[in-house]
């Protein structure tokens, strides 16, 4: 048995939130910028994905990974993502208010 004290789920969650807040502050990421990025991801869902996680939403030039597969004789349809089931609220607009949990004032040390 380990001699390290076990961290409760609640404590691990609190530590993670503090870490995320600090990284956001370090890189100048605002809650609004995060909400905007989430909204952009929701509105530009990928159409194609390979096994390595490369994605393309079908806009702009075909990416190298898909072009290489096509040149090797693999149909781009092989990489087409099937329609995914809708997650409750996934179609709604991202709001900074949804991020309040992460951005409540940090306790002072």
Automatic annotation (TrEMBL):
Stored SUPFAM superfamilies: H-NS histone-like proteins
Species whose genome carries this gene: Trinickia dinghuensis
One of the record's GO molecular function terms: DNA binding
Highest taxon in the source lineage: Bacteria
InterPro entries: H-NS_C_dom_sf
Name the record gives this protein: H-NS histone family protein
